[in-house]
Specification:
This protein is α+β, with helices and mostly antiparallel strands. The chain contains 15 helices and 17 strands. Strands 8, 9, 10, 11, 12 and 13 form a six-stranded antiparallel sheet that branches. β11 (about 210-215) and β12 form a beta hairpin. It is elongated and about 110 Å long. The relative contact order is 0.07.
């Protein structure tokens, strides 16, 4: 039976005694707490020989998981050492060795080798990396020389975040693209060390906590993005004015532990983000891992839920209409109408919640969605809100938006534009549904004993969207013909166009920006 090493933790609980094994090597174990688990290191003659995370199956397969974690780590180390003692094919010493992986063996540097100690394997990879580094340097110099012939004009250096936001929104690229193997290519705004902003594209690894791998800048004269290592030369700034920089992605990335969201910190895994929550953490001075918090504060922005609901319902309607026809029974047609009505109500609720959130943040949470407004603007919005302006239901929804713009010294909406007329009639449609009053409508009179009049909503809505084809020709415009898929999509798109314009006037990023890709994916692309 093979020998078992009897390690014991010292008083700190972070390292063990040293044990000399039969191969005359001395072994010791250390541990480091990491994201709620432990990293366990085995030292061989005081040099790292192997490392493992207690959350991995390769650790748990060698231990009794019912034992305390402190004992599990010692058992794993002892079992691992005994199991993996062998002769290194390179240095020929008897020590901890590992069989080479398929990935290793694909490289010619590992030819005629089978198992290596960590030190010898690392030395070979150092040579590989040096060779790769030299090749990348040559490629970099070639690319730089080609770029010097037509130097890129990097877009950025803006004093306001919203200017960088507008610049990158003009690009046709989606806010978030999956590029494979756990990586995503996302639109982002970075704030460099001198406080200015740049629109960029980031490569993010979503399987390791949102690790940031690379940054690409955009230029006004080239059709391709400029990698960070090439872009520095053309930024016109010293490195000290660029690094360190912070970034915010335009699309929410679940589990990204390396950035603040538009709504606050999202690194608390005990509180689900749900795309609508601002999660603010208070941590002790000395902390390890994302769970080491002393206080958690959550603030919800339900306007985002309302517009996500509208998007979900539109998607369901689009799918529904692929199977429905005039021959469907009344139950199917009722389901169809239910989806349309719910979409309209969600859109109107979104408009109301969205403007209330803006005023409430100015009053209570200046680091929320209003954080990029001038402090003087936040102060006046807060002051008027505390006085009930425009806090009560006596203020129409559109008027609340106009008041916000007026208090911010921004140009108000022109009530004569089609955009504003759409919102006005959308609110009227919502009110007609919520405060419904029945009426008798003459839709046909062969004897012409009466005058057939258009309903008020028909006069205001007809021609704005395709009508409901699953109703009778002599049914009234409202509610029967009006409540259609076209009506639902019109309501949704009108809301987004209106609030986009509102936030652009204010000069801040929309509340719902980080879930915009979900709205686009579920409605606009599907509908096309």
């Amino acid at each position: 039976m093979k020998q078992k090493l009897k390690f014991e933790w010292d008083e700190s609980g972070n390292k063990t005694n040293s044990i000399k094994f039969t191969n005359s090597k001395v072994y010791q174990v250390t541990n480091t707490k990491f994201h709620g688990n432990f990293r366990v290191d085995i030292l061989e003659n005081e040099i790292g020989a192997s490392v493992e995370n207690t959350s991995n199956s390769t650790f748990q397969d060698l231990v009794d998981i019912d034992e305390p974690i402190e004992k599990q780590m010692l058992d794993w180390a002892s079992n691992f050492i005994v199991k993996n003692i062998g002769v290194c094919d390179s240095c020929k010493e008897t020590k901890i060795v590992r069989l080479l992986s398929t990935y290793d063996l694909e490289k010619e540097d590992f030819q005629n080798l089978n198992s290596l100690c960590k030190n010898c394997r690392d030395k070979i990879y150092d040579k590989i990396y040096e060779k790769d580094k030299a090749e990348r340097l040559a490629e970099h110099e070639l690319a730089q020389a080609e770029m010097d012939k037509n130097p890129p004009k990097i877009i950025g250096g803006f004093k306001r975040k919203n200017d960088a936001f507008k610049a990158i929104q003009k690009l046709g690229n989606p806010d978030r693209e999956i590029i494979g193997e756990g990586f995503e290519y996302v639109k982002a705004i970075i704030q460099v060390a001198d406080g200015t902003f740049y629109p960029t594209f980031l490569t993010i690894c979503v399987i390791d906590g949102g690790e940031h791998w690379d940054t690409d800048f955009i230029s006004s004269n080239l059709e391709y993005n400029i990698p960070q290592n090439l872009a520095f030369k053309y930024l016109g700034k010293t490195i000290e004015k660029i690094f360190p920089y912070e970034y915010e992605t335009l699309a929410h990335i679940e589990g990204d532990f390396h950035q603040s969201s538009w709504f606050g910190i999202t690194t608390q895994t005990n509180v689900r983000h749900h795309f609508i929550n601002q999660i603010t953490l208070q941590r002790p001075d000395q902390w390890e891992g994302v769970e080491a918090t002393t206080k958690v504060q959550v603030r919800s922005y339900f306007s985002i839920q309302h517009i996500l609901s509208a998007g979900y319902l539109c998607k369901k309607l689009i799918e529904f209409e692929k199977t429905i026809s005039n021959e469907n029974n009344d139950d199917d047609l009722i389901d169809h109408r239910s989806l349309v009505v719910s979409t309209i109500l969600s859109c109107a609720s979104f408009l109301e919640a969205n403007i209330n959130e803006l005023f409430m943040d100015a009053s209570e949470n200046p680091n929320g969605i209003v954080k990029d407004l001038p402090k003087s603007t936040i102060k006046v919005l807060s002051k008027m809100w505390s006085r009930g302006i425009p806090r009560t239901a006596s203020y129409p929804v559109l008027e609340k938006y106009q008041i916000a713009l007026a208090l911010s010294n921004k140009k108000e909406f022109d009530l004569g534009t089609s955009l504003i007329q759409n919102i006005t009639v959308l609110i009227k449609l919502r009110n007609a549904l919520v405060h419904y009053e029945p009426e008798s409508v003459i839709t046909k009179d062969i004897a012409e004993t009466s005058t057939i009049k258009k309903q008020k909503l028909e006069q205001q809505l007809k021609g704005k969207f395709p009508l409901n084809p699953y109703t009778g020709i002599d049914n009234p415009f409202f509610p029967d013909k009006c409540l259609s898929l076209g009506c639902a999509l019109w309501a949704f798109n009108s809301c987004i166009s209106f609030t986009d314009d509102f936030f652009m006037k204010l000069g801040i990023v929309p509340t719902y920006q980080r879930i915009r890709h979900k709205l686009t994916d579920t409605i606009l692309q599907t509908h096309r």
